[in-house]
Every structure is written in structure tokens, then in C-alpha cells.
Design a protein that fits this description.
about 85% helix; mainly alpha; about 70 residues; about 0% strand; 2 helices
Length: about 70
């Protein structure tokens, strides 16, 4: 699986910045305001980051293999 540079950059930005920031925000607000489901949101976020990170890793390995 090869990703275009722009797709790779967007996915990497999501995994490294956006998803962890939104997760942190939600978990803090959950504790502060009692929204609920903070642990579930954190677990799903971690799984999503792992999944997207795996896709990025596979794409990088394929790119380096073809180089």
C-alpha cells in the first residue's frame, strides 16, 4: 500500500497532533464536567492511532523498499 505524500502528511498529522489533542481535551472535560465515557473515548482513540500508525508504517516500508 503506497500513500501519496499529501495523504501521508495528513495521516501523520492526525496521529501525532490532532487525535491525541482531542482525546486529551475530552478526557479532561469528562473529569471536570462529568460528561462520561472518558475511558472509552481514550481507548478508542488509542486504537485509532495504532491503526493509522500501522498504515503509515506499511506505506513507509513499501516506499523504502521500492527506493
Amino acid at each position: 500500500m503506497k500513500l501519496s505524500n499529501s495523504t501521508y502528511d495528513i495521516l501523520k498529522w492526525l496521529v501525532l497532533v490532532v487525535i491525541p489533542a482531542l482525546t486529551t481535551f475530552y478526557v479532561v472535560c469528562d473529569k471536570t464536567f462529568g460528561w462520561g465515557y472518558g475511558e472509552i473515548v481514550a481507548a478508542i482513540s488509542a486504537a485509532l492511532c495504532a491503526c493509522i500508525g500501522s498504515i503509515i508504517g506499511i506505506s513507509t516500508a513499501q516506499y523504502n523498499k521500492d527506493k
